[in-house]
Write a structure and sequence with these properties.
The protein has 774 residues and is α+β, with helices and mostly antiparallel strands. It contains 21 helices and 27 strands. It has a 7-stranded antiparallel sheet. A hairpin with a 2-residue loop joins strand 14 and strand 15. Helix 10 packs across helix 11, helix 15 packs antiparallel against helix 16 and helix 18 packs antiparallel against helix 20. The chain is elongated, with a radius of gyration of 63 Å.
């Protein structure tokens, strides 16, 4: 939607409205004074008026209830006179024979007793009916007729009731009631109740007497009571039929008032006083009063007449409000004149201050808070002027420092890139841009991932920019389109980002150092290969001399010959280790996987070392927790080298009379080989460095043993290439326990690898010699 409250159009309209109705200070002061003066007055008047209205309403309610109860008793007495008169005649008709002479005399007398009686009928169980009707001439007309009381149900209608009353209209449309009573065969003692007519029973009803009465005088003679100012009462029967009403025209035109609120409330059994709408459509306070006959006397008083007593108070309150308003306006004008001038000076001074005129002075001498405010404005102007000067100086210094920093960053050989949280490049120095053969300006605003196609172990690499901290990533490869560059990357992710910079990335080119390392490895490999040839010649001649030396050399010379042969063997082992190290570092080392019987291999190696152990008077034992052969997917030659290395070290570092135990155990899906000795052991602080290149524990130097420090490093590489583990158990200076584990042969998992025979692995930092990628 374009016209909503928050839309630009809606905001513009609201701004125009506020601007149009914006009041100046004098008008606001006047409004505030009016508010302070009139709100309490209006509030008090409102409370007083409401309290007065409630009190008047309560008084009217109590009064109406009293009137309604009194009028209900009057209506009961009015009806009781007619009903008891017929009841007395019914009793006479029961005790005398219903002959015409007696009926004429008795019933004619009823018309003289009650002028409102218009007609009376006597009905007997045998079907006779005699009717007496009052004529306008004053005579009584008598009519006989037949009536089938049984078929019509009249007799049954009289059973269980003492009298019946119905409301209707006569021929002149005047209110008329019909009162019917049963004539009993026998009567008991007369009752002292208001209505003396007894209840008829099925076997005791002899007939019925019915009287028709004009009730036009009911209101005038019984309930012509004035309630308050303009209040009145009217009568309805239990079904809502109008019996009498003070308004003759309304009485002539309305018969059924069942839908009127007060009458409807009475029919539903609610006799409470409520504010409602009268039968003539006015707001009234209505109280229904119930009668013994089931009729209701509805007492009503207009609401306006009830509240007329507080009109004078309302007029007085209005007059007081007008006077208070005039006085408030005068006082407000006086105070506004005292405040407007200094406030106007403050307003003009603030505007000049906003335009940058910080030297202007606001002159106010009121000796109050306004003067203090003016002095504060003046001091604030001087402070802002000084602050702006300091900011200009600092900005100049920052620009100089920024130039220095940019020069330093540009001169750094490492690449430096600043990115935001979305990975967009904010700033980049020339060495970093050179990695992708682009200018720094062209890279700003682009995504880091789109410009730098980093890889790690053949997979696309993306640095983490979400979690704060410093992260270092080594051995990354970047293909810049012409050659492959090897990098070390450090990512510093900022925790509290007060600027757009989310991370600083430092890129270090490792390509040259890798090339140098490979040159070293090439030199070692070439040197080792070249040393093999003369070493082979030396060893050959030594072996030749050894075959004839027994007969031609002295014992002293023969001992020297054997020392030379041992030295040649040691030199050959060193050359082999150096070649292995070169293969490992270059990633060219290969192993040949086959199904290897590890129990047999370990056992045979132990037997081969027993002669060496015997020479040093050492004990060498082998233990296996299973009688069956245990197979592993491994390279035989490399595992032999590992076992020889561990057993050889144990024998080497154990003293004379030492004990070396070789144990083979099965743990779940892997086999474990342990070599333990009772030598000097390895200190805890040196254990982490045992399996690194060229490292020898200090204790080995104390014992006088010789070595290159390459055996454990090579063993670790061999075992890990074959998915195993190697390590040393903790000790307390009472010997060492070296171990390695290998997975047990699983045909489903290992047959494919065994069928291929070879399996290569890469160890160390170096991967392959850098080469271009087209």
């Amino acid at each position: 939607m374009t016209g909503g409250k928050n839309s630009p159009v809606g905001k513009g309209v609201l701004y125009k409205v506020r601007h149009a109705v914006r009041l100046n200070i004098s008008a606001k002061i006047l409004v505030y004074f009016l508010y302070i003066a009139l709100v309490p007055l209006i509030s008090v008047s409102y409370v007083l008026v409401n309290n007065a209205r409630d009190q008047l309403l309560n008084d009217a309610t109590v009064k109406q209830q009293v009137v309604a109860n009194d009028l209900s008793r009057r209506v009961d007495n009015y009806l009781a006179n007619d009903i008891n008169m017929l009841a007395f005649e019914a009793r006479l008709s029961s005790t005398h024979t219903l002959d015409n002479d007696r009926l004429d005399q008795s019933l004619s007398a009823l018309f003289n007793q009650n002028a409102s009686l218009q007609q009376v009928s006597i009905q007997t169980a045998d079907g006779r009916q005699r009717t007496f009707t009052s004529q306008s001439s004053g005579l009584i007309k008598v009519t006989d007729s037949k009536v089938d009381l049984v078929s019509s149900g009249a007799l049954q209608f009289m059973v269980g009731k003492s009298y019946l009353i119905s409301v209707g209209r006569d021929d002149n449309n005047n209110p008329q009631i019909a009162v019917g009573l049963p004539i009993l065969k026998t009567y008991g003692e007369p009752s002292n109740s208001l209505f003396a007519s007894p209840v008829g029973t099925t076997d005791n009803v002899a007939g019925a007497i019915i009287g028709y009465f004009n009730v036009s005088d009911l209101w005038q003679s019984v309930i012509s009571t004035t309630v308050g100012k303009g209040g009145y009462a009217y009568v309805v029967d239990g079904s809502g039929n109008l019996v009498t009403h003070p308004d003759k025209k309304f009485l002539d035109t309305h018969k059924d008032l069942a839908e009127t609120e007060a009458v409807h409330q009475f029919i539903n059994g609610n006799g409470r006083t409520t504010q409602t709408v009268s039968e003539t459509g006015k707001d009234v306070i209505s109280t229904p009063g119930g009668t013994t006959t089931g009729w209701a006397v509805i007492v009503e008083e207009p609401v306006e007449s009830i509240y007329s007593g507080i009109d004078s108070f309302i007029k007085l309150s209005a007059t007081t409000g007008v006077i208070a308003t005039i006085l408030t306006v005068l006082v407000g004008l006086f105070f506004s004149r005292q405040l407007i001038r200094p406030l106007r000076e403050l307003s003009l001074g603030a505007k000049r201050l906003g335009r940058g005129d910080f030297d202007q002075k606001i002159e106010i001498h009121t000796k109050d808070e306004l003067q203090e405010l003016a002095e504060t404005f003046n001091a604030m102007g001087q402070g802002i002027k000084k602050l702006i000067g300091d900011l200009k100086t600092n900005n100049l210094k920052l620009k100089i420092e920024q130039i220095k920093l940019n020069n330093i960053i540009s001169s750094v050989n490492d690449g430096i890139v600043a990115v935001n949280s979305d990975g967009e490049i904010i700033s980049i120095n020339p060495p970093a841009a050179a990695f992708v053969n682009k200018s720094p300006k062209s890279l700003e605003g682009t995504l880091m991932d789109e410009q730098f196609n980093w890889e790690h172990d053949g997979n696309r690499f993306t640095p983490d920019l979400k979690n704060g901290g410093i992260y270092r990533y080594s051995d990354l490869v970047l293909n810049n389109g012409e050659s492959v560059v090897y990098l070390d990357v450090m990512v510093a992710v900022l925790d509290h980002q007060e600027s757009d910079v989310a991370a600083i990335i430092t890129i270090h080119d490792q390509t040259a150092s890798r090339e140098l390392s490979f040159m070293k490895l090439d030199f070692v490999a070439i040197a080792a290969h070249e040393l093999r040839t003369p070493l082979t010649v030396i060893r050959g001649y030594l072996d030749l001399l050894n075959t004839t030396a027994v007969n031609e050399l002295t014992i002293y010379n023969l001992e020297n010959l054997h020392k030379a042969m041992d030295g040649a063997d040691q030199l050959r082992q060193l050359i082999n280790k150096l070649l292995n190290i070169a293969r490992i570092e270059r990633g060219d080392m290969e192993i040949f996987i086959e199904k290897l019987n590890l129990t047999k291999l370990v056992k045979e190696n132990v037997e081969q070392h027993k002669s060496v152990a015997a020479q040093k008077e050492q004990s060498l034992t082998y233990n296996c927790d299973t009688q069956r052969s245990v197979y592993v997917p491994a390279d035989t030659a490399s595992i032999v080298e590992v076992v020889n290395n561990l057993i050889g070290n144990a024998l080497k570092y154990s003293g004379k009379g030492g004990k070396v135990d070789v144990n083979l155990t099965i743990h779940d899906k892997e086999v474990r080989v342990e070599v333990s000795d009772n030598g000097p052991g390895v200190p805890e602080e040196l254990r982490d460095r045992l399996f690194t290149k060229f490292y020898r524990a200090e204790r080995s130097l104390i014992t006088g043993t010789r070595g290159t420090g390459l055996g454990l490093f090579i063993s670790k590489t061999i075992i890990e290439l074959q998915h195993g583990t190697i390590g040393i158990e903790p000790d307390e200076g009472k010997g060492s326990i070296f171990y390695f584990t290998l997975p047990i042969y699983d045909p489903v998992r290992d047959d494919d690898m065994i069928a291929k025979k070879t399996s290569g692995g890469i160890r160390g930092w170096f991967k392959k010699r850098p080469s271009s990628r087209g």
